[in-house]
Amino acid sequence: MMNGVIVSKLQSLEETLGELRSLGEITTEQLTREWRTRRAVERDLQVLVEVVIDVCQRILALLNQTPAATSADAVNRCIEAGILSESESYRKMVQFRNFVVHRYERIDVGILVDIVNNRLADFERFRDEVLSYARSAD
Description:
CATH architecture: Up-down Bundle
Number of strands: 0
CATH class: Mainly Alpha
Structural class: mainly alpha
Number of domains: 1
CATH superfamily: bsu32300-like
Radius of gyration: 15 Å
């Protein structure tokens, strides 16, 4: 079930997680003071969620299903199919991405700090669940 597109996306996920982890523990003061770091964090987090969405859409295509109409639908359909665990964190990822894309001028740095300091493991769990599913489907 693993194909080149999914492998490439998961590699991008790993690289982006590495970039964020290289920052160490971040603070709201740091992101308020350092606009370049804030922008890099915003972009890296957006990329991580886009990877989640793209991988979900690709899995649906490999299952010969119609494309999901929305990002949330793509994730929900993978949860319903048992590929991903039932997790509020996946839904929050999509909500965050939509917020970053559509309300980009008002991103609360506290949210960025919380995600980087406390929620990056959610993306690792996603990767692990996709890899586990791919191995079982082969």
